[in-house]
Write a structure and sequence with these properties.
The protein folds into two domains: 74 residues, Phosphoribosyl-AMP cyclohydrolase (Ubiquitin-like (UB roll), Roll), CATH 3.10.20; 85 residues, MazG-like (Helix Hairpins, Orthogonal Bundle), CATH 1.10.287. Helices cover 45% and strands 21% of the residues. It is built from six helices and six strands, in the order ββαββββααααα. A hairpin with a 5-residue loop joins β5 and β6. The longest helix is centred in the C-terminal third of the chain and has 21 residues. The chain is elongated, with a radius of gyration of 21 Å.
Length: 181
């Protein structure tokens, strides 16, 4: 390949989590290999850029692999912060977490999420406890639909509690991965 762009999949070396997708031309690939920092070619700006050059969230290269026909790249990295421009660990952040982050910015009068986060960790802790009890009761005596509904409430409020503490849900995934049940 000469000046063609390759899809570049960036993966966290420690967790295996896919962090983002970017594009690399030959120059970006060469700089990534030689500098040890991830570089991309911006299709919108039509120029080369280093990941983290403005945010400080650089990605240190562990390994670069081309696929079998050399039109895609897998880059395993150790990242110095969030991969996504929106501040999340991965650009492939689950829908619900991304929605919580968006609604957090809303006016508390217009958003349940903003209201709950404004009211703080103590209130959210009580709410998670309440939702956990409701799930247990439903699991013991109610329909599958009711159990799913209560599990959704518990899951949602647990995510709000994590947000109130500044914890990305990826940290929970990492903890479970380390336990490897």
């Amino acid at each position: 390949m000469s000046d063609e762009l390759r899809a570049a999949i960036v993966q966290d070396d420690r967790t295996g989590r896919v962090l983002m997708l970017g594009w690399m031309d030959e120059e970006a690939l060469g700089l990534t290999r030689s500098s040890g920092l991830v570089h991309f070619y911006s299709r919108s700006r039509q120029k080369l850029w280093q990941k983290g050059e403005t945010s400080g969230n650089v990605m240190h290269v562990v390994e670069v692999q081309l696929d079998c026909d050399e039109d895609a790249v897998l880059v395993r990295v150790n990242a110095d912060g969030p991969a996504c421009h929106d501040g999340t660990t991965s650009c492939f952040t689950p829908w619900l977490w991304r929605r919580i982050l968006q609604r957090e910015q809303a006016n508390a009068d217009d958003s349940y999420v903003a209201t709950m986060l404004r009211d703080g960790t103590a209130l959210l802790s009580r709410k998670v406890g309440e939702e956990a009890v409701e799930l247990v009761v439903a699991a013991l005596s109610e329909s599958e639909e009711r159990v799913a509904s209560e599990a959704a409430d518990l899951w949602f409020h647990t995510l709000l509690l994590l947000r109130s503490r500044g914890i990305d849900p990826a940290a929970v995934e990492d903890e479970l991965r380390q336990r490897d049940h």
